[in-house]
């Protein structure tokens, strides 16, 4: 299992548009095959940094998922919405594996 962290730099005056974008992904991402943890918009501190986080089995599954997402009608519309509204200044994807597992077992005495 790998976890994808998408780091967004967003226009701080267009946070509502980013949150609308995130809501659409909240339905489309699971439908297309990834385990969405969530989208996070700025609350305190940086007004320009936001995140999307999801799990996927492998990089091969990621490639197939991305193709399904690009072909999904609401996915296509959401990409177009972001392009038109230009609330995303930059985005970067990083992939991680969980290094602390099984962390919940370590917490019990």
Molecular structure report:
Helix content is 45%, strand content 29%. It has one domain (2-97): Alpha-Beta Plaits, CATH 3.30.70.100. The model has no long low-confidence stretch (mean pLDDT 92). It is built from four helices and four strands.
In whole angstroms, the N-to-C terminal distance is 27 Å
β-strand amount: 25-35%
Which class of secondary structure composition applies to the elements? alpha+beta
Question: How many alpha or pi helices?
Answer: 4
Globular, elongated, flat, extended or rod-shaped: what is the shape? globular
Spell out the blueprint of helices and strands.
Blueprint (H helix, E strand, L loop, with lengths): L1 E9 L4 H18 L2 E6 L8 E8 L2 H13 L1 H13 L2 E9 L6 H5 L2
Concise synopsis of the structure shown:
This protein is α+β, with helices and mostly antiparallel strands and 109 residues long. 45% of the residues lie in helices and 29% in strands.
Task: Please describe the structure with a list of short key phrases separated by commas or semicolons.
single chain, globular, 4-stranded antiparallel beta sheet, 4 helices, alpha+beta, Alpha-Beta Plaits, 109 residues
């Amino acid at each position: 299992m790998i976890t994808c962290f998408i780091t967004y730099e967003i226009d701080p005056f267009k946070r509502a548009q980013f949150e609308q974008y995130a809501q659409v992904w909240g339905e489309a991402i699971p439908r297309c095959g990834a385990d969405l943890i969530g989208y996070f918009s700025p609350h305190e501190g940086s007004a320009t940094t936001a995140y999307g986080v999801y799990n996927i089995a492998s990089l091969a599954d990621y490639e197939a998922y991305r193709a399904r997402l690009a072909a999904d009608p609401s996915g296509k519309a959401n990409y177009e919405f972001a392009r038109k509204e230009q609330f995303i200044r930059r985005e970067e994807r990083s992939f991680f594996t969980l290094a602390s597992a099984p962390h919940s077992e370590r917490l019990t005495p």
